[in-house]
Amino acid sequence: MACGVKIWYLMSIMLSLLLNCRSFIHGKPQVPCYFVFGDSLVDNGNNNDLVTVAKVNFLPYGIDFLAGPTGRFTNGQNAADIIGELLGFDDFIPPFATTNGSDILKGVNYGSGGAGIRSETGKTLGGRISLTKQLRNHNVTVSRIELLLGNKAAAKDYLNKCIYGVVIGSNDYINNYLQPQFYSTSRKYTPDQYAAVLIQQYSCKLRTLYKHGARKIAIFGLPQIGCTPGELASHAINASGCVDTINNEVQLFNNRLKPLVDGLNKDLHGAKFIYVNTTSITSGDVSVLGVTVPNTPCCEVSTTTGLCVPGQVPCSNRTEYAFWDAFHPTEIINLILARRAYNALLPTDTYPIDICRLAEL
Predict the structure, then answer these.
(1) Which CATH superfamily is domain 24-360 in?
(2) Where is the signal peptide (predicted)?
(3) Catalytic site positions
(4) pLDDT tens digit string along 12-29?
């Protein structure tokens, strides 16, 4: 009976999405293309050929993904995959590393595990594609689209209609500020100063994206990093069940994202930035969906990387786990985040509108 309730609940959410987005019902994508920038939360294979620790093209990663291990840092689809489906795309948006020909007209995923807003972020992991490099790669894509469409004006008009998702910043804490033995940022900046510096740098990079033709841009806030199994294993846990000091530091960054969105929309003509409140969405009570294991990895993880040990058999009840490895969510959590980012369930989920409404503008 309980299982039936969970299935009905999930189906009711999907039904509400279908009823709210007519173009998706009709099978035609709401927008011509979808571009993704970010870190391991959206990486779908860009790190596979890099010399890096941040690479997961092996089982048990992808155990629930039709194509198997592809470089996605989860058991199935990541949030970017699901948002692409909700927008109406028939196929997954390809990683920049493997795009060719006219495929780029539907969009490109530039996400890279270990990447951050700051260029030095993740350097201890090895190769990774920082947000700055992702923007350079996008500039290459824009030039190719200009050739495909015939001229810059046609390309600009085309790109203005697309959706852009940016999911980045977690590594600027996990693989930078929270590792004083490798990075100097925690000695140079107080938590508040660091958040301010990050936002300033982020703003510059988002303005660069705007210059490349982006107008409809969804910025995702950071999750509660202090609740990840990786941080819980190395810090004292508070009564909340998480590491409050880390969550408080990360929230200083998140608190600046709404004002950032307002400022960009005010300063940049025709810009339509929105904010997705990842913390609000993923920190709620997900037990109604059957997620009953909130802070234990589903797979056996390496004590040095926090990633799944290659070839090991993960938990069988994966829909009951919030975390796949020490830092990355399972597909069920990605599903919750993506659906509420696309079609907000609560007023706190997105600001000022959700991705579905953004696509309709």
Answers:
(1) SGNH hydrolase (3.40.50.1110)
(2) 1-23
(3) 40, 325, 328
(4) 455 444 545 544 545 799
